[in-house]
Fold these 3 entries.
Entry 1:
Amino acid sequence: MKKNNFLALLFLIVGFLTNAQVANAPCNDFSTWTSNNYSSITVANQTGLFGDSWSNKNNLIDGNTGNAASWSAILLGSSWIEARNASGSTFPAGSYAGFVVGDLDLVSLGASMKVATYNGTTKQEEVNFSSLVSTILDGSGKRKVGFVTTKPFNRIRLTVNAGLTLVFTANAYYAEVVKPCAGAALACNTTTDITRTNYGAIVEPSRTGMSGISLGSVSNADNVANANVSDFATITINAGVAASGSISIRDIGDTFPAGTYAGFDIENQSLINAQFFNNITLKSYKNGVLQETVSGSNLLMGLGSDVVASTGRSVVGFLTTKAFDELQITVNSLATINIGNTKVYKMIAMKPCQKTISCNSSYYLTQPDFPVVLNSQRTGLGTLACIGCSVNSADNVIDNDPNNYSRITLAAGVGNTGSISVMDPTATYPKGTYTGFTVKDRYFVYQGDFLEYITIKTYLNGVLQESKTSNELFDLSFFIPIWGTGTKNVGFYTTKDFNEVQIETGSIGSVVNVLDVYSAFIDTRSSNGGSLNCVQAIAAADDSYTINVGGTSTASVITNDTYQGNPANLGASGNLVLTQNSGQNNGITIDPNTGLVTVSPNTAAGTYPVTYTICNNVTPASCDFATVNVVVAADSVNAQDDILTVPAGTTSAQNVLLNDTVNGLQAILGNLLLTQVSTSNPGITLNTSTGNVSVASGTAPGTYQIVYKATTLLGGNSDTATVTVIVPGIPPAPDMKVNISASASSYSFGEPLQMFYEVKNIGNANTDGSEIVVYIYKPNSTDEFTYSTLPMGWTLKSQTSDYYAFSTNKVINQGGSDTIILNYTDNSPSGDTALFKSLMTNGAGGEINFLNNLSAELIFRNDF
């Protein structure tokens, strides 16, 4: 064989073997770039005047992972060392690439490290690590520095900068990679540890560590990602400091979908108190980008090994709403609180799958049948000050072993509480569902009625719905099986939807209170809502009414309710009994005999929900619930102008309220307040107690005006009107007046408003045909103020930038009128009112009264 051909074949064989090594690299596990794993691995480093700057550089790639290549430097020194796949074969994008280095405190030294990947001589990516304070892997002080790549590579370089340190030594033990492979799909309602090698779990160094220097440490971080379920990392925060420690686990082989329950299995003695969860924050990431942040009351506890036990171990997580491939836990400490060490065992994930439930059935809310978790904010002790108190193994309440239970122990005293809250994040259980907990009171012989010390509460999306205690609770063991002697199913029939149920027990003054809690449950025999309409015989439907103050609905709330498919009936001969349950205002009542809703006269305007129950007369009764949404309308008033002829020295026989209305009905002094606004003659007055007009003796004959205001007693709505008072004694004569009104009560910038100028003869005779001239003034000369058509017989006499003058010689009969309509548009960005004015020429149409020839109306701007 020729020499050239032999060399080509040799290179081909070496390349084939090297490619096979890359392809056969272990999935989801660290693989050291050392000669015992990869035959083509070489090492290179930066050189100086005296040769290699790294001593024992081949230690980086030999098969002994316990020795290291070393570099020593002085002030501002820098050097690199690199592991190379000499064959040129590449690891794929998405792989982890990094180094294991010695225990260095880079922050205090002012130094830094960089990890870069290359494809041949071309740099692909680089990440800087300026702080390694809290990435300790194990007791030997080794640390990992690396990152998840986005480009293929066949070289990994470590660069170390000494910074301002006078004498500096760096140790590099070996380079390593993790090839990503997809893990198994998550099982329904079962928590799974996200660890190597089942999943591509690695510690993300850039988001793992402490918030500062010498405040604590994060040790053995990689224990969270390895497959040993007994291993754990420890977040230590020194007492008396405000600091935080974090561990972030990234799965380089998988992306978990939105709706996944994700969290960490952790342990801290402070977890026996629900308030500790305010010190925990979880964050999810995807490709290094933050997706969600959850802390405090939004955290949920999943199924762990010893949840809220005496050791304080718990799975703490949340239901994600965005896809993610990385989860970080941060434990925060305040300077005033010493939370001690927090052990972090594993990252966990669970696929919540909603359980299909049926009518007339009972269910225990346990995994994996239901995707239930414990709400951390409502599980645990009410205070850490309770010595000898505990909530042990709370997650036993949601496992599927009927013999397991959580024990709540409260020392004798007053004010101590312990609670467990079970939440289904995928479902909403309808009203009418019976819910509660199976419990056993260990001291019931001494306590008597132990229900006095138990409270059951329901929540919907974190909002309290109902709370029942003592005689409001009852045992439903007839339908729901119980476990062992002395157990009871304590609960109540709900009247509102819920997705979380909590049991809380309180301390007893003289003895220790010990309560064993087995499981939460639901029973659907009376459920009515959503996909469950289990109470077919009785169906109550919600209603909505608008009722004036002091009024009664025209329809009964049971108009749309049914009994056995037929219309519901009340009363002595009816088939149902109605009971009003609640209302936000005691002034709104439902008549149990008619179902009519009444609003008392002193009820403020607003919207009020009122609930009621209808039941049949059998035992046990079947019932259903509904809500009546009552809109209480404020009183409205409409005051109309009047014309009265009243001789001097007398009082009018007609009341000015005769043509006025309140809520569309005849206005009376019993439903409004009457006040006199003005009078054109002090001898002519309005009696506000009767509504009649009096003219003093000696008042000169003529035509006068009284302006009055009518105000509703509830709501304070008001309207004004003008009474034209004719004092006889002179020949009949016309009297011209302009009434100004608008198409709306307010206006806005740039929006047209119609203005109506009613030219009315309010005298006691027709006009005589002489000229009637009306001047209509613009509120502002810059605004648009136009007219389109005039009433028949009217013409534009003249106009300026400030007014229009319109005239007519037509005869306007007594009480007759013509209306001139102008369009107004506000073009000024400033100003909050517009004043519309008009002036009638004295003597218009033969009138002799000039006192009412000037009219004005003020309109407010609503967007200023």
Note: The chain is about 5% helix and 45% strand.
Entry 2:
Amino acid sequence: MIRIPKAFLISDGICLLGVLVFLLAWPKQLFRSPTSYVVEASNGELLSASIASDGQWRFPVADSVPDKFAKCLTAFEDQRFLMHFGVDPVAMGRAMKQNLQSGSVVSGGSTISMQVIRLSRKQNRSIWQKLIEMYLAMRLELGHSKKEILGLYAANAPFGSNVVGLEAASWRYYGRKARDLSWGEMATLAVLPNSPSLVRPGKNAHKLIKKRNDLLDKLVTLNYIDRATANLSKAEPIPTQPLPLPQYAPHLLNRFKAERRTLKLPSTKLSSTLNYDLQLKVNELLKRYNNRYKANGINNIAALVLDVKNAKVMSYVGNNYQPENKELESHVDMIKAPRSPGSTLKPLLYASMLSDGLLLPHSLVADIPTQIAGYTPQNYDLGYDGAIAADKALSRSLNIPAVKMLQQYKYERFYDQLKKLHFSTLNKPADHYGLSLILGGSEVTLWDLARSYMGMARTLNHFNEYQGRYNPHDYDAPSYVKNKEQTIDKGQLEPNSVLDHGAIWATFNAMEEVMRPGDEGLWEQFSSSQRIAWKTGTSFGFRDAWAIGLTPDYVVCVWVGNADGEGRPGLMGIEAAAPVLFDIFRLLPNANWFQTPKTKLKKIAVCKQSGFKAGENCPEKISDMVPFAGEKTRICPYHQLVHLDATGTYRVTDKCESPAQMQHAKWFVLPPAMEYYYKIKNSDYKPLPPFKPGCDEPSNQLPMDMIYPKNNAVVYIPVELDGTRGKVIFNVAHRNPKTKIYWHIDENYVGTTQSFHQMALNPAPGKHTLTLVDEKGERLVQIFTILDREKH
């Protein structure tokens, strides 16, 4: 057995300890200084940046250092950089000789690796500190490649004023990326960190120019550039003052700041999905519209463009950014701001009802004066159609049919639908919103609105790819982070979804039929005009103007208004937001229309006049492709078999006419209140013939209907301009307008009407009973309440 002397064990232990110290004595993070938040477009161009929290312009470490800078820096600072191990004995010896000969420090002999250590430590230099720098520089070389060391230097070297790092310096002094700088510009930046007296370009310009030119001559000597290039580079001017950085996406920059932890991105630099050219064009477009709208006191405008197929953000303009005018509040990101959506949720209700079998695309919906529990919706034009096809009501954005549809669908159910579509601002119970939910009674964000429509478009696009099944991730939020791809697990596909393919397809077709602003409905005649499904919205008080449009490839959403919520006359979706929407679509490539999901549609017989599923009394039936759930809808309630006398002039019953003498006709009959308005706009509507004298009208057919006020209505009577108390216009529809109606309030006779059944009354505050009796003794009883003006 060989005995090892203790001296050797001790020396080996010391060596091992030294090696361990050398390997382990290294900070986890060499540089801890905060960096600027930076947003780049998908092509790498800078969109926006903000100063770091310590007041410095310091960009995160770049993936690579431009070759020009590497050559300029090594030629100026460390020619043997690629050969040494962190410390260059040759350079150190040369520096010591020069310093001894001159009697002062004229050369330091520090390598780039040693300078990286010095930049990270920020301590006063002494012989001891320099020895530590040498030690750590060798340790740095052991754990990092030469390329990485150059990157650390380029990202942390001081370039004058509050500018740190090559990329920040390039933008602050030349207004472009470092990779795009010329040899002269790069040489200027390469000499700056080594010259404390020249850290502020514009001062001592002749010294800075001399250092740059000397470096250019050195580059010629090293055969990096030729003499002609050097001479041309020497003629270039040097920067005189820092330039402002681009602010093409400041609101996305702030969003990135707030969401970086959630996104789990280690760097403060965001490589975004934004299309650089499109972002700049949309910015310019919104600026032009904003300049036009400011004359009317409308100060803010926002737009979001999404790539449907990739679920990516292509353009993000949260506001027309004007930091010089703080009173305009252009710093507010209106893409994230909760606002009233106006009518932009109506297509979602339409699609939900189609999907759940409560509606067919062209079914008639009532459009008559309506009051529900004190809530009185109004159409924008204050008119009524009596009855209108559901798709036409959607394309014309009529409010009363939308409320009637929501009343049928139930607002609680629609509230749940919106939750499933990821609307994040519905933070109160469904009862808080009630039926006003469909007319903008809630708040939504532009982001959530665009996301929901993008999800619908993605669902329809994937119909064939997923063999008619659904991917719940189609409704995921769009991504603004480049290279963050959605992974599709076919095992996650589901047989059902929030909205089915057929309902979405029918909804987009209905949305396409809206007349575009300024085109007078003639756009369909031009083959170059692409098909776009779109919807506008205007909030109560003209505070928000919306427009959202989509194709199979893109979703565009626009908001116009004031960030402080101030309403302005003329601030309407169709006038303020829709023109912007279509101008943005003109910046995008044309897209084909959605493929028809034929296996999710069924051909059924539909009553041509009513749009309902055809029954035996429908005289004219057509075939229509409807979602599968359409089979559950009810048979047309507006067609009935009518018995006429032999002349076809009067209605009859078997009590006054022999069945053998009767004619039988299938008749389109609307309830009296709907009929009252419908026949005004539909001249081909044929009212029911009167009953033949001596024939009693069946008691189950009430000939009267109250138009206003509805049963259990609550009515407020305003004061006229002269201070007198106003009156309420009571309005009744009767199938036979020529008949007389006798009016009673609380059993007191108040008047008679004939042909035109309206009466202006001024009942006292409180609860009342209105009784109407026609010539044949038919009665209609309604309860209403008049509010006390003194208490309200």
Note: The chain has a mean pLDDT of 87.
Entry 3:
Amino acid sequence: MGTFEDRDVARGRFDVADAAPVVLDAQGVVTSWTPDAQRMLAYGPTEAVGRNLADLLTPEDARRVPDLIGRCGAEGGWTGLLTALRRDGRPVRVSVRITSLPGTQGTSHWLALLSDLTDAPGWDMSRDMLEQIVERCPVGMAIVDTELRYVWSNTALAQYGGGPPQRRLGLRLADVQPGLDTESIEAQMRQALATGESVVGYEHVGRVRSAPFRETAHMMSFSRLDDGRGHPLGVYYTVVDVSERHRARQRLALLDRAGERIGRTLDIVRTAQELADVAVPELADLVTVDLQESVLGGAEPPPIPPATQSVRLCRAGHRSVDAVPKAVVGRGEVATYPPGSPPVRCLTTGSSWREERLDPLTEEWATDTGGGRRSIFLELGLHSAMIVPIRARGVTLGVTSFFRRRRHEPFDADDLALAEDLVSRAAVCVDNARRYTRERDAALVLQRSLLPHRLPEQDAVEVTAYYQPADELTGLGGDWYDLIPLSGARVALVVGEVAGHGIDAAAGMGRLRTAVRTLAALDLPPEEVLGHLDDLVARSEHTDGITPEPDEADPGLPTVDDENAASPGVDGTVYARPNRPEEDRAGAGCLYVVYDPVDGRCAMASAGHPAPAVILPDGTATFVDLPPGPPLGVGGPPFESVEVTLAPGSTLTLHTDGLLAGGQPTSAAEAERDRLRLALERPAASLDLRCRSVVDALVPARPHDDVALLMARTRRLGADQVADWELPCDPAVVANARRAAMGQLTEWGLEELAFTTELVVSELVTNAIRYASGGPIRLRLIRDRALACEVLDGGATAPHLRHPRATDEGGRGLLLVSQLTQRWGTRFVPEGKIIWAEQALTDPPG
């Protein structure tokens, strides 16, 4: 079996505790068996010697023996793990080191050292091997004592600065890394010392000596070291540089913030400023956003001039970590870039530009129009720069410039990639805002051309109105108001709104307003006006409600939900809108009110619209109990009208729901009505000031919906302005009617109208007697801004003009009336019908 005097030498070379030596010949046959091997595997010497090593292993490892013996011959030895079988068949995991037998020639015999790993996690390694692991490990390691002074560190820790391990001995972290927040790190060490619990995954961000101009991030873990009695000896900690991962998280977080903050509105300048705000200070210390001047107005940008020409751009966004240098062009000013400058090259090529270190003596590129604010980069404190063109859908809208002043590290390739991501996101938002600005301006022009520039003059009411479009976030709506003079000195007051926003809403508003005026000319009751409007809108929904197919949209635009998508713009492009409150896209709202200044009666009907408020002469405000009715075009029950009598000096207040927070629960709606009531009851010196105070109290600076407010203070015609007579249904009374009318004209001093009035009275009374179904006839003259002659009878048929031939004996009465008067018509009332005619008065009554 043999013994080995150099057993300790072999163990020293292998350094495995309690190793069992075994000698093998060149074929792997056991030639020597030791008591240690017997204790490990339970084979006696006579049972083991002469057996092949493969017979002592599991079948799987036995197949590996020939290869292992061959590798020993080729490489001079082998080290690894095998599974041996004890005499009782129980497997034993062993660590094996095979090396040439000391004192033998060549490779005729091998020494195999076996170590039982049953109760061990792995090899029991020597100090030399442990030191190799520690020294070659790229992770920084160190041990500090209970006073947090270094007692040991590995070589890898020196990569963070502070010198080699020998120089750290006896020093604290603050002595070797003065730029770090050492208090927070030492607090983690004290926590581990005090509790005995390890601190794992502590991330620290700062500037180490090895990279004083760049912010670095480190992942640190701290564990307490105890002696054999459990007393703390110090803290062992590791350091791993995770700066790249930290910067990647920062870039992702910055892009997330950009997605949340850029493009929250459809205002071009605000979007440009949001880009600058997001990039400072995380990416740059100074950011400027310059756009072509035509872009700010919503127009298409002109062709980019060649790089040999200077370029004028408007400064739309500007942000700095500290005071902006006076020499830098300010927001709203024009920046002029000289030919060949980096911004001009970026505009012309559409490519980004980066300069790690600016020449401090080079003059700044941008100057104002006066040319008197040129400075060199040294004076501005700028040392690194990037310029990224703002491009969307193949069009260059401007440039964004990034500079560093405080941060000493220059921009690198990762910074440029991040800047390009930010600018590309903002570019789509800027272009959306540009297109929306163009559509909004066109819609505003259309809407203002359709709204009344000045309300007609009349004496029934004193009137004032206010209109404000919604802010750019929601989009221009289709609210409108109107005042329409009617026969008999009456007026119609109208407010309404069309669902939707943009050009479509403005055009729909124009159609609806025109339809209301047409129906008002027919002198129909309010509920009938709304009934005809309902039919008109329903037909329009079926014939005009055409939605573009999805593939007609611009593929370069972000996808949005249907409820947040804008209507097609003036060029047919559909673009994204920010989220806005849910809106009712079906139907339109309208409130139609007719006021008669003769007796103060006021008839009204509503189609899905708030009821009007009334300010009584004593200053208190109340709301008319008016059924809201269904919106126009959606169908439903018939419209209902309500008639009230208003005292002179009462103020009718008609408004769209943009004046209040529409779409609220009942309790909130009541609260909004209370707010309106309080605003209406505030005293004011004039109707205009009252209207202004209501708007100031209820309408925010940037309303989410259009606001239309119409206020009308009622008047009554004096008793001396109205004369009426009840006449029997007898042809003989025509002469009496003419005489009564002539006497009244004389009393009013309107003798110059006697001839026409006599003819009108004679014709209208004669027609009433001829076609009425019996009952009395009433003649009424009204002196207002016009002289109105009205004849009421119980007939249900309206007269119409005839065009008699030259030989006809009659049929010319109404034709003469239409030729001699300003206007004439028929309106139906519960008692029958009224035929009326008006003559203009040269001087309206004072």
Note: The longest strand covers residues 216-226.
